[in-house]
Design brief:
Structural class: alpha/beta
């Protein structure tokens, strides 16, 4: 009998990023898991085949490529370790992760609460798909905090949070909302794509289901589409079964790319934050700008909650401009050389797109009269980005 080994203290998040995702000893010493491009896995005996069909262990055994490969399992393990949740599962996009998680936890006759500032396709799914199947959605003011309990009904099944909110970056009091929901037996789901688990540990703040568009900062290189869902142990089988029964799967190539991106998440996010803060500070002093909605700024709305709950801020924020004619705004955006015009974020490159939140609010009103630009500050030199924005403002004034 060997001596009892003392329990090892929990590993820091940077160490988890470097070492989670399988054991090199089980893959011939390879530091990274190889890419298993496989649909079919064969078994040596009937007994092994029948054991693989055991319903209780169907998500633990590699038996068919749609359910798992060694590569996808390695990435799932790494995400669950980073999240601090029970287990993770992979989807082909962030939106797929959102919709499957919602669908798994509701049935006809249920009522759900969704942040008024949620990602627009999330709202579309609730309004068009869930509504068609008899699930009612109420949108709530993201600043409601613990008073969300006033919106609970007998048939309220879940609260869907997104903090900061899409486009306008309101910070929610996640611990207050999750505590209120837990007291009533209501599940809480969080789209945590902006902060990632590196900057916001969702489960430590009471969330039951954490959802990531891993296409963004996890992948980090604008070359992979992938989403993840991580749950508590109590909800794992329910949500994982929904993923399997709807036939979703992720290729081993995409899982490999996302896991490779995960290894450098900390150093990339810290650089995104440093660059974004420098650009945001410069922008807030510009005469063309009314407000910069970046929670890390000391005078930003929600900064106190951000400082209390978050470990950092990513590179995505909004810039509210003074009222100008559309041709002038177009001239500004069209003249940008280092900021691309693209719908995503979280890659190494900077992006800038015009946005209008007004059509997508029902519980709150967007009252700013001027244009809103969403910026993603990438990994370029921030001084070059500032110079690009300065010349673009000059084009705007000239137009």
């Amino acid at each position: 009998m060997s001596e009892r080994q003392p329990a090892r203290k929990p590993l820091a998040v940077d160490t988890l990023l470097a070492h989670s995702g399988g054991d090199p000893a089980q893959r011939q010493g390879a530091v990274n898991p190889p890419v298993y491009r496989a649909s079919t896995f064969v078994f040596p005996t009937v007994a092994d085949w029948e054991a693989s069909r055991d319903h209780a262990s169907r998500f633990d055994i590699i038996r068919y490529g749609q359910l798992a490969t060694p590569t996808t399992l390695a990435f799932e393990e790494a995400i669950a370790s980073l999240e601090g949740g029970y287990r993770a599962m992979l989807l082909p996009s962030g939106l797929a992760a959102v919709t499957v998680a919602l669908q798994a936890l509701v049935r006809t006759g249920d009522h759900i609460l969704v942040a008024d500032t949620a990602y627009v396709p999330t709202r579309i799914f609730c309004d068009r798909v869930l509504e068609r199947f008899g699930v009612e959605t109420t949108y709530y003011d993201p600043l409601i905090g613990g008073k969300i309990s006033t919106l609970f009904r007998a048939n309220t099944r879940l609260v869907f949070l997104e903090s900061p909110g899409s486009m306008t970056f309101e910070i929610q009091d996640v611990p207050a909302i999750t505590a209120a929901a837990r007291a009533r037996g209501i599940h809480t789901l969080l789209d945590n794509s902006w902060a990632t688990p590196y900057f916001f540990p969702a489960f430590a703040h009471g969330v039951d289901v954490s959802i990531l568009a891993a296409t963004k900062y996890i992948g980090g290189h604008s070359d992979v589409m992938i989403g993840t869902i991580t749950t508590t142990e109590a909800l794992y089988q329910r949500v994982r079964s929904e993923v399997a029964e709807l036939g979703f799967c992720v290729s081993s190539d995409d899982a490999y790319l996302a896991l490779r991106g995960l290894r450098t998440l900390s150093v990339r996010l810290e650089r995104h934050q440093r660059n974004a803060l420098q650009v945001a500070e410069w922008l807030r002093r510009r005469p063309e700008v009314v407000r910069v909605t970046y929670p890390a700024l000391a005078d930003a709305a929600g900064h106190a909650l951000w400082k209390r709950d978050f470990r950092g801020a990513s590179g995505l924020f909004g810039v509210e401009l003074r009222p100008i004619a559309k041709p002038a705004l177009d001239a500004m955006l069209n003249s940008l050389e280092l900021f691309g015009m693209g719908a995503s974020f979280g890659g190494f490159e900077s992006l800038a797109i015009p946005m209008d939140p007004r059509p997508y609010r029902t519980a709150t009103r967007w009252t700013h009269d001027g244009p809103l630009i969403r910026l993603h500050v990438g990994l370029e030199d921030p001084n070059d980005l500032i110079a690009d924005l300065a010349q673009a403002f000059g084009r705007m004034r000239g137009a």
